[in-house]
Design goal:
Blueprint lengths: L3 E4 L3 E7 L14 E7 L1 H11 L4 E8 L2 H12 L2 E2 L3 E4 L5 E7 L5 E6 L8 H11 L3 E5 L4 H9 L3 E5 L8 H5 L3 E2 L3 H7 L18 H4 L8
Parallel strand pairs: 1-4, 1-9, 2-7, 4-5, 4-6, 9-10, 10-11
Antiparallel strand pairs: 2-3, 7-8
Helix pairs in contact: 3-4
């Protein structure tokens, strides 16, 4: 039985490091290219596994080379990927990232298989894994998130990328871990927050370092 189950996204990060970010309609040359594993869910899973937790990932990838490469990388990190759906009719999620010399960036994401992760699939996977602590983030659809929260003994939601969190998901009682901007975006300005727990203390330094499998 895993200590931590992550319900979330898997992306292939295609990264160009350039002297500066391009403006609208502009091409900037002289950059270098690298390809890394990414996605908030995959990054959570790698971080948990590196901290020594038995970690399983519930996610979806496409039936393409990006998906196969992502699964190999995650398995090499010690993440259980038996709960990752391989969807033949969609592409694996992709993030196109440009980073300049000051570490400022531009990112465009094609969600692909992440958007196709099904709530019923998540519920069945959590039942098989005897869901305990489940980590969630907002790069997958609401049905998958709701199934993840309802199937957990303790659900922890990182509300990123920042957007309004559905009321049904808040009603499931996850522990939220937003920064200030995400907290503002998580609910309507006139709504009363329904969460009761807040983690203000910083995580250990080892947990905040970006996993080397995602160097962007």
């Amino acid at each position: 039985m895993p200590d931590v189950i992550v319900v979330g996204s898997v992306n292939a990060d295609l990264v160009v490091r350039a002297p500066r970010l391009p403006g609208p309609g502009e091409t900037v040359t002289g950059g270098t290219f690298a390809r890394h594993g990414g996605g908030k869910g995959a990054n959570q899973a790698v971080a948990a596994a590196r901290l020594g937790a038995r970690t399983a990932l519930v996610a979806a990838v496409g039936g393409d080379d990006f998906g196969a490469e992502a699964l190999r990388g995650l398995a090499a990190e010690g993440v259980d990927v038996d709960g990752v759906a391989r969807l033949a009719d969609v592409a694996t999620g992709v993030a196109l990232i440009v980073v300049d010399e000051r570490a400022e960036n531009q990112i465009a994401v094609a969600s692909g298989a992440n958007a196709a992760l099904d709530g019923a699939f998540v519920a069945a996977a959590l039942e098989r894994l005897e869901g305990g602590v489940v980590l969630l983030s907002l790069e997958v659809g609401d049905a998958a998130l709701l199934a993840g929260a309802r199937g957990a003994r303790l659900a922890v939601l990182n509300p990123a990328p920042a957007r309004e969190v559905p009321a049904a998901l808040l009603d499931a009682g996850p522990l939220l871990t937003p920064n200030a901007g995400e907290a503002r975006a998580s609910t309507r300005p006139t709504a009363r927050p329904t969460w009761t727990a807040w983690r203000a203390s910083p995580p250990p330094a080892s947990a905040t370092r970006t996993p080397s499998w995602c160097r962007c």
